[in-house]
Specification:
Layout lengths: L2 H5 L5 H30 L11 E4 L2 E4 H4 L5 E6 L11 H7 L2 H10 L2 E6 L4 H11 L5 E4 L4 H4 L1
Parallel strand pairs: 3-4, 4-5
Antiparallel strand pairs: 1-2, 1-5
Length: about 150
Amino acid sequence: MTEAFEEHKIVPENEWIEARRVLLEKEKEFTVLRDQLSRQRRELPWKAVNKEYFFEGPNGKETLAELFDGRGQLIVYHFMFDPSWDAGCPSCSFWADNFNGIIVHLHQRDVTMVAVSRAPYSKLAAYKKRMGWDFKWGFFLRYRFQFRL
């Protein structure tokens, strides 16, 4: 056994059930608090976007408004990919492996999702092809957009 297992407390089933019951109560309290916080976040006022932002991606140059693609909501995922890197962030890549499957579900809920990075589109397109992804991904020509989110 590893050292971590040797040091971990092992108890009879009745003690484990009691400890789990106590933790479950805390988890339920946390769930209520998280739901309240999520509701408050959804109720935040919206901010008008008065600046014109341009996105470069698979369809060439598009405005921020065009990225909505006729839908009522837009999710912009900031995928960390520095212009000097040869590959995207490993954690961002992990999450992006699941984007293709959720896009259709988001569209059914009036939501468009795009990923944005700081690297030029040619680098993003090559990495996207290598990874087998087909979600919309590009960069803002005035990349300070990410810092204003």
